[in-house]
Design a protein that fits this description.
The chain has 557 residues and is of the alpha/beta class. It has a domain at 188-343. It is built from 18 helices and 15 strands. Strand 5 and strand 6 form a beta hairpin.
Length: 557
């Protein structure tokens, strides 16, 4: 089973309720106005339905609903979702239960929790969709919406439209790019011409990333070549060529210490320093002489550098950028031009749009084939179920026709058509006149498709409205059969349906201090007989209705 326990606090006319639920088929019955649908409403609230202060019991400050579900390992998608959303209980290695809780206060503020961790209404709804499958009294209304009809058929066909949706998005993107390129050709051409002219200007310079610093270094050196040569020659003379040059003095000093070092050991250290200094000065002289030999005054090269730097600086001023940024600017313009060339290449864009359209249509045609195959099987099964529900000769059709234009959902317009009896022509579900027929059609669809989802709990909220007699017994049998491998909870007013249930929940109203309260409890034995008898004969309980109730329970359960 899936739904194990539900707890209500100050919900509508329920002051406090703690109810354990069982596997199999359970019914909720009670007098008119007793609040048979309160549990359904509470389950919808705790699984993310819109919060409404009207759900708060009169005089209370807030309402609270908790629902505890079995969470077997077979619900792998649910476990994956819980892990990714951060709601998985690492300490619960068995992962056997899932607790949902929600509160709403009189200010309309809603709060939700999953396994004790705060959760949004959207997250509660995402969990609820995997746990509960609720069929309301007006379930047929959704069958008039094309998206709901198509989704039901796709679920039956086990069609995955995720790839189709992505291909549709790709196709739309290429269509938009092509349309924009076509409408912007004049602007694109003007922009291309501007970029081409600017790039042409910088092509004359062809600036490399390291050229500007190198030009500055060379220009500085050539501009001061004479003073640099004079400095090198002056130093060389002072160190070696003048009569009183530094090297001669250092040699003389070293010789003086060398002559006395055998008498005074403390002269050894200064001697070594002098000898080292002599070697370093000789290196300086060698370097400066080499510099003087290789350095020339080159006015022609200096003029070339002046001209080159002038071109750099002129373009930098024109485009209001530092000279060192010109290489990046040049490359950026070339990149922009390449993008514009691609955007302006209508042939390439048209080819790309055609490829994306073809990919979408291939996937859509494959899905259309799956839908048509599944549609034939679905209409046969629902038609069969309609016969069991008292619509002999009636038939159900899945009509699939081409859409005027492709859509994200594909190429198909899907409609459900119904002929309520033999000899009538199939018409759209929404145009079937009889409310009883609509309810039975919705029930036939619900029973036929109940195994599609992963939800372990199926809820039917008075979907048997307008049904009676032998058909009502068939409805009960169908739900009983569903309860063999799913948990089924049905709100019903039909004794034939109630008698087929494995478990019977009685909803009753009480007056307390001038306030009306609703309660729900499990009934069995004579209490259940009395409730079936009430459903059979209204308030007039008689030996006949009691006997009939006992006979029904004995024959159906």
């Amino acid at each position: 089973m899936a739904l194990r326990r539900i707890v209500l606090r100050d919900f509508v006319i329920v002051r406090e309720l703690e109810l354990d639920l069982h596997s199999g088929f359970s019914v909720l019955t009670g007098e008119t106005g007793a609040g048979k649908s309160i549990l359904i409403d509470a389950l919808q609230l705790v699984t993310g339905a819109r919060a409404d202060v009207g759900a708060i019991r009169e005089g209370a400050s807030r309402t609270e609903v908790s629902a505890e579900f079995d969470c077997p390992a077979t619900l792998s998608e649910l476990h994956t979702w819980l892990q990714e959303a951060g709601f998985d209980d690492a300490n619960n290695t068995e992962n056997t239960t899932l607790l949902l809780r929600r509160t709403v206060d009189t200010q309309g503020k809603s709060r939700g929790w999953i396994n004790g961790s705060p959760a949004t209404a959207q997250q509660l709804r995402a969990v609820g969709e995997q746990l509960l499958d609720i069929h309301g009294q007006h379930a047929w209304q959704s069958l008039t919406r094309p998206d709901a009809v198509r989704a039901l058929l796709d679920a039956y066909a086990q069609v995955n439209t995720r790839t189709l949706g992505q291909l549709w998005a790709d196709w739309r993107q290429t269509q938009q790019a092509l349309e924009q390129a076509r409408s912007a050709q004049d602007n694109l051409q003007r922009e291309r011409e501007r970029l081409q002219w600017q790039i042409g200007e910088l092509d004359k310079l062809a600036p490399s990333a390291d050229e500007w610093p190198e030009l500055n270094t060379q220009h500085t050196r050539l501009a001061h070549a004479q003073s640099l040569l004079d400095a090198a020659q002056h130093v060389t003379q002072a160190l070696e060529e003048d009569d009183s040059n530094a090297l001669s003095a250092l040699h003389a000093a070293a010789q003086a210490l060398q002559a006395q070092v055998h008498l005074e050991s403390e002269f050894q250290a200064p001697l070594e320093l002098l000898q080292s200094s002599i070697a370093q000065v000789e290196d300086v002289v060698h370097t400066l002489r080499s510099y003087s030999r290789h350095t020339e005054l080159d006015p022609d090269r200096l003029a070339e550098l002046d001209e080159r730097m002038g071109l750099w600086m002129g373009l930098a001023r024109r485009y209001k950028r530092p000279p060192e940024e010109l290489p990046a600017l040049w490359q950026g313009w070339k990149d922009e031009l390449a993008e514009l060339d691609a955007a302006a290449d209508l042939e390439a864009l048209e080819a790309r749009e055609a490829r994306s359209r073809s990919a979408f249509e291939r996937e859509a045609l494959q899905i259309s084939k799956q839908r048509k195959q599944a549609g034939r099987a679905l209409q046969a099964k629902i038609t069969s179920a309609m016969q069991d529900l008292g619509m002999q000769g009636g038939r159900f059709e899945v009509a699939i026709s081409p859409l005027p234009q492709p859509q994200q959902s594909g190429l198909d317009d899907v409609q459900f058509l119904v002929a309520g009896h033999a000899g009538s022509s199939p018409r759209p579900v929404g145009k079937v006149a009889s409310g009883g027929e609509l309810s039975r059609i919705a029930l036939a669809i619900a029973v036929t498709t109940s195994q599609l989802g992963t939800a372990q709990t199926l809820i039917f909220d008075e979907v048997d409205s307008g049904v009676g007699g032998a058909v009502a017994e068939t409805v009960g049998r169908l739900m009983q059969r569903l309860g063999q491998d799913r948990q089924v909870l049905a709100v019903t007013h039909l004794p034939q349906v109630a008698a087929c249930a494995h478990h019977h929940l009685l909803v009753a109203k009480q007056q307390d201090d001038g306030h009306t309260h609703s309660s729900v409890r499990l009934v069995a034995g004579d209490e259940r007989v009395d409730e079936i008898a009430r459903m059979l004969g209204g308030e007039k309980r008689s030996a006949t209705t009691v006997a009939h109730a006992r006979e029904m329970l004995h024959g159906m359960v």
